[in-house]
Amino acid sequence: MKIKTIAGAGIVLCCAAALATPAFQIEYAKLAKPPKDSALAKAACATCHVPGKPALNAYGKDIAAAMKKLKTKKLTPAIMKALAKLDSDKDKVNNAAEIKAGTLPGDPKSKPSK
Ligand SMILES: [Ca+2]
């Protein structure tokens, strides 16, 4: 029983880690085009994941939901468009505005300064 649980957790970790491959991050950067040297450009895994963990943050969950809805395992312009008007982290700035400003759309503490 205990071994089964550990093995299950391992599979979950592997699947979560598999999404955040360098290829996925490169594709994200190509589509999002965050401002050079911005928090978003430097965030890498933390763009979509809880920092240091495989768990997805609110933005990562929205990306995963959009990929599932559009039946794709790749990041596409259609997914970015579907996410643009959402405010994943509920900081009152939509994802498109956060990306343009280079702030993190999955972290409510990171938002454009007024
Ligand atoms: Ca934010």
Short description:
This protein is mainly α and 114 residues long. The protein has six helices and no strands.
> What low-confidence regions span 5 or more consecutive residues with pLDDT below 50?
8-16
- Give the overall form: globular
Cα-to-Cα separation, first versus last residue: 54 Å
Number of beta strands: 0
Report Rg: 15 Å
Residue share in β-strands: under 5%
Give the % helix.
40-55%
SSE run: HHHHHH
Q: Hetero groups bound?
A: calcium ion
Total domains, how many? Answer: 1
- Estimate the mean pLDDT confidence: 86
How is the main sheet built? none
* Secondary structural class: mainly alpha
Q: Can you put this structure into words, describing what you see?
A:
The protein is mostly helical and 114 residues long. It is built from 6 helices and no strands. The protein has one domain. The longest helix is centred in the N-terminal third of the chain and has 18 residues, at 2-19.
Topology:
Layout (H helix, E strand, L loop, with lengths): L1 H18 L2 H11 L6 H5 L14 H12 L7 H8 L10 H7 L13
Helix pairs in contact: 4-5
